[in-house]
Amino acid sequence: MASSSTIISGSPCAACKFLRRKCMPGCIFAPYFSPEEPQKFINVHKVFGASNVTKLLNELLPCQREDAVNSLAYEAEARIKDPIYGCVGAISVLQRQVQRLQKELEATRAELLRFAYVEHRSANISTIGSRLQYPYDPPSPTYGLLPSFTNYYLPRSWNASTSNSSTGEFIQREGEEGSNGGSTVIID
Questions:
Q1: 97: domain range?
Q2: How far is C-alpha 89 from the geometric centre of its chain's CA atoms?
Q3: What is the pLDDT of residues 108-156, one digit of tens each?
Q4: 70 and 101 housed in the same domain
Q5: CA distances (Å), 129 to each of 9, 122, 161, 169, 185, in order?
Q6: Is 184 inside any structural domain?
Q7: Which residues are in the LOB domain (predicted)?
């Protein structure tokens, strides 16, 4: 959790060095403001003040202090960059960006659906035209002994009420007889 609770090689923590005081072994800043990152404490001190940070850290449990210091450091850096809004300004910019990207994603999805619909519709029309089976000519040598069917190929979506059958099954329409010139439908 905390990076180091002891002073490294006798050098004071960034807070004590900035405040020009002796860093004691129980310094509350030492675990969170290392001497390698002096700007972190300088920003926090400039925005919140050392005494306020000390009070805040003393009120927290030791397990919560590191998260609190990281939050203070983030807010202090944001306040220095944007003194009016701080991190709230950055958050609102990101929220607007997310909303814009969500609208763009919705528009792209709608466009994809439109293209898929147009492609599906044009594919169905060309497929239907190429698969349409024209009526058979009555076979003259049999003199009407074989039934004369008018066969149509219809996709299942066009004639779903006719059948729930599998691909290629012939279905006789209601009220028509198959042997006396009735129609047969092929459903894919």
A1: 83-131
A2: 24
A3: 999 999 988 888 777 776 665 555 555 555 455 545 454 444 444 444 5
A4: no
A5: 87, 11, 22, 20, 15
A6: yes
A7: 11-112
